[in-house]
Amino acid sequence: MKHRIILSALALAGVCSLSGCYFFPAEEELLEPPTVAVEDIAYSTYTAKSKTIEDKTTATGYVVCKSEYNAGFPESGGTLKTIYVTAGQFVEEGDLLAELDTGDLPYLYEQQKLIVQKAQLAYNASGSANDRLTLEMEQNTLAEYERQLGNSRIYAGMSGQVCYIQSMNPGDTVTAYKTIVKIVDPDELCIQYTASNMKSFPLGQEVTITVDGEDYKGKVTKTPTEVEEGVYDDYPAVLKDTKSTYCEFSRDMPSFLSVGQTADITAVYASHENAVVISKTLVKTDGDRQYVTILDENDTKKEVDVTVGIENATEAEILSGLKAGDRVVVR
Predict the structure, then answer these.
(1) Strand 68-71, strand 181-184: pairing
(2) Between the chain's N and C termini, which has fewer beta carbons within 10 Å?
């Protein structure tokens, strides 16, 4: 039996060798890889324009008065009796502005004047050292009453217009030297601008002052470090300001100006009409070279060297290398 199995296996092997291994599948023909048509690359472009370009700076300032007077009480703890003026009112130097409630102090003051007169008569009659000391004591008391009365009233230190009144009611307690009434001269207004970077507005720079949508010519007359000679000689408060830039109107100021009103200040350093202008971000730099990438008339992308003129925060003037209508590649 064993011999039969061996013979059968040998016979099967022989058949396979003669038949070419018909038991295995035929090898498949290799196919060419699929081909994909390459589409045209789409570029995003910016078209160079012919327009006016300006290098300018604009900032927001406020209308201020070069001459002002801040009136306040010299001592704390007093009780407000009344404020005699209203905002917008014109006052003369020396006018009474506000007063504290002093109770019976005016009566005590008048009585003390009589006491001093009596003490003076007694001393004149006797000439004694005791009457002299009594007279001095009564005079000191009168002087204290006068001081208290003087500190209970504030007066206008200049002629002008009331532009500010502290919000207070009768009976409120006052704080020493806190401004109760502010007086300004409405004919002495200018524009004040305060910011960390003042280099944008050099001394003498011509500016446009815009108030309520109307433009007026002006000039920078003071910076934090420089001042135009003679302009502010009569205004020590302005001269002491080392944090602000001041602008004066070149002609008559608007009649509707008021202290605290906002005003835009615009300085134009350079301006060209019919300039070739593109977005500033499209200009590339490689060392000393400046260039842009464009699409030519055949839609071929290429680099071209350019010369840049005026630049501002968003745009650049191209003096050479581009013309209006050229397509500059954005990406």
Answers:
(1) antiparallel
(2) N
CB atoms within 10 A of CB 250: 13
245 HSE (CA, 13 A, CB side): 26
Q: What is the chain's alpha carbon radius of gyration, rounded to the nearest angstrom? A: 46
Summarised one tens digit per residue, pLDDT across range 247-270 is 999 987 887 888 889 999 999 999
Lookup: tokens for 116: 């001093």
Distance CA 164, CA 168 (A): 12
pLDDT digits 0-9 by tens, 183-207: 999 888 999 999 765 557 899 999 9
Are 295 and 43 within 8 A, CB to CB? yes
Measured N-to-C along each axis, helices 105-126 and 129-151 cross at an angle, to the nearest 10 degrees, of 160
